[in-house]
Amino acid sequence: MSISTLAISRRLEAKGFTESQAEGVAEELVDIVENSDLVTKDFLSANSAGLETRLMAKISDVRVEVGHLKTDTIKWLISLQFGSLALTVGLIYFLLNYILLKR
Questions:
Q1: What's the pLDDT tens digit per position in 37-88?
Q2: Of the candidates 41, 38, 35, 11, which has an alpha carbon nearest to the alpha carbon of residue 23?
Q3: Is 85 helix (H, G, I), strand (E, B) or coil?
Q4: pTM above 0.70, yes or no
Q5: Which helix (H) or strand (E) holds 57?
Q6: From CA 15, how far away is CA 25, in angstroms rounded?
Q7: Conformational region of residue 16, where left means phi above 0, alpha means psi within -120 to 50, and beta covers everything else
């Protein structure tokens, strides 16, 4: 990023600064900007594509993992249903035998 101290000082002079004040302020502004960690539009554009690619890959990984979890959950639920059915049938069988034997 290039900043013109001459352009800044001329604009400040047009607003009423003396030439010395305008040059001093312009030099300080340029020094602050050049020695800081400012993010430019070009930097953001260059790095956003890579970030988007990484995020899409992570989202794909999460979708695959959710799919596996859904499959595992369905397997557990089916197993629990069959277990519950077997327990119910066993209890009915036991109760019917108990009732028929008492007669």
A1: 888 888 888 888 888 889 999 999 999 999 999 999 999 999 999 999 999 9
A2: 11
A3: helix
A4: no
A5: helix 41-102
A6: 13
A7: left
